[in-house]
Amino acid sequence: MLNGEEAPPKTRSEASAASLAAARRVHAACERFEADWKARPRPRVEDYLGAPDDPARPLLFEELAALEIELRRDRGEHPTVGEYLDRFPAHAEVVARLFHIVHRAEDLGLTEVWPPPTRLTDPSEPRASSSSSAPPALGERFGKYDLIAELARGGMGVVYKARDTALNRDVAIKMILSGAMATEAERERFRREAALAAKLEHPNVVPIYEVGEQDGFLYFSMRLVEGGSLASHMDAYRDDPLAAAGLLEVLARAVQYANEQGFIHCDLKPSNILLDRDGAPQITDFGLARQAEQPSALSVSGAVMGTPSYMAPEQASGDRQSIAATTDVHGLGAILYELLAGRPPFRMTTMMETVMQAIYCDPLPPRELRPEVPRELEYICLKCLEKVPKDRYPTAAALGDELGRFLQGDAVAATGPLQKLRRWARREPEIVARLSGLGLVSMLTELNYRAFSPHPDPVAHRCVQLVLAIWAVLTLLFQQLHRRGWQSDSLRGFWILGDMACLTLLLWIMRDLDTPLLVGYPLMIAASGLWFREGLVWLTTELAIAGYATLYILAGIDWGPGAPIWSRPNALPYANVYVACLALTGYVVARMVKRIRTISRYYESRRQA
């Protein structure tokens, strides 16, 4: 106020700007807190909350406290509700809600419930007006529904078990989680999920009863399936491949029905398959579903939509024009793979590496992880997971028919040798690249020795072929160790050391520092970037320079009679340039790896569940 006059009320645009400014503040505070947590022993939430009268303080506290609890649990600590009530008595309700989420997640065995993710939204995206920004608590009345228990919570929605007082029956209610903080795009996506699911009437698709809005929260009610998700019943199928095949046949028929209605689910995974009390599967969560003949206006072109561990290559690469019924066939194959192998088909330490694996690599055959898996069922599973959509089953119905033949003991369409070879090449890119390169060098060496060399040296020729054979054996050895779980950077470091030693030995045997094989050093530096480890790139660079320097010294000592060869005019005049190029190659590859990993960590911490 100025001169006793009240400030004019805020317009809707001003209120929206204030809300966005608060969201940016919360995001910046969480980023700073997480960075400080990694950099120093123990930052305090209290130091990041601002002034006591700050209107953004409650939202800051909720996000920062959730983040701190998550980070402490990652360190193996066990924060308690009493501890946080003592620290923050003024936020007792928020503390109780946060710890209710933690305990509920543990009770249900859910991995995607906690932590509630901090979302980074587009500052230019308008927010929907609403009367509330927090979902209702258990025991409260939500319209005509009494909320009984929280079943699941993700980045966009929360699902409750509720009692429909009008019809006197238990239902499941899914409501948009962010309330007033939800963007129009989020609300439209939520409405779209309800609209798509409501059009499907199938015994193995969870039906929608009602769609509406209450107290600013969009919601829809659906059949309550109390058997839990398939993700919590995986062990029941892991030792029974026939039961897994029967379950997938039922799911394939349901997916075929949805596809025939013009919808592609796009997010088939165990947590989206519910089991009723009789064990019958029910498909749910059509949040990413799209109409087959209609591009989605809610997804940015090129955006990665789905769950990386189960994602088809066309989804992982953002090629939404290629999404079709075969995308759901891939999702069904991913579910079957986890039932058979005990793990998802694609799973790495970071989201970026998982997405890259989904695009370029084939999973290990299930029989290599569990030898008791029937070979025919493995064929069916891997055919579903082919990288090229046309190589998969063309429809979910075709997959269902194939599973039916397997269950009846009839012959199934076996994978051809060309597909097996192609799948192996994608699954083992490191070993394929090395063995192909070594085989090519060996053949060319033999050709040159027998046809083009004016003065063939049989001793040097045999030594070269022997080193190439040793190199191939070392490659197979390291790859076997890698596949048996020795996936540490130390093993990769020894692998790189073996490669560099073999290449350097080859060049020493050939006694020629002008050979085109010198390109092997920079090629190995570039190839080391495929492991996405900056330290391994620098190790490869240092070993390449050390190997070349060793050859250079040996050339002066042993290769030149009389004076050192590199002291003669016009002999090896560019060795220093070559070393500088190796160092520059290592720098460029290491910087690219660092940037990619930084971007990956950022978006992984911001992605919605």
Automatic annotation (TrEMBL):
Superkingdom classification of source: Bacteria
SMART domains associated with the record: S_TKc
SUPFAM superfamilies: Protein kinase-like (PK-like)
Xref: InterPro entries: Kinase-like_dom_sf, Prot_kinase_dom, Ser/Thr_kinase_AS
Disordered: annotated span: 113-137
Name recorded for this polypeptide: Serine/threonine-protein kinase
The keyword Transferase is annotated on this UniProt entry: yes
Molecular function, one GO term: protein serine/threonine kinase activity
Enzyme class (EC, first level): transferase
Gene3D superfamilies xref list: Phosphorylase Kinase, domain 1, Transferase(Phosphotransferase) domain 1
Start and end residues of each Protein kinase domain: 145-407
Membrane-traversing stretches: 459-478, 490-509, 515-532, 537-555, 575-593
UniProt keyword terms in alphabetical order: ATP-binding, Kinase, Membrane, Nucleotide-binding, Transferase, Transmembrane, Transmembrane helix
PANTHER family assigned to the protein according to its UniProt record, in alphabetical order: MITOGEN-ACTIVATED PROTEIN KINASE KINASE KINASE 20-RELATED, SERINE_THREONINE-PROTEIN KINASE NEKL-3
E.C. number: 2.7.11.1
Leader peptide range in chain numbering: none
Biased composition (Low complexity): 126-137
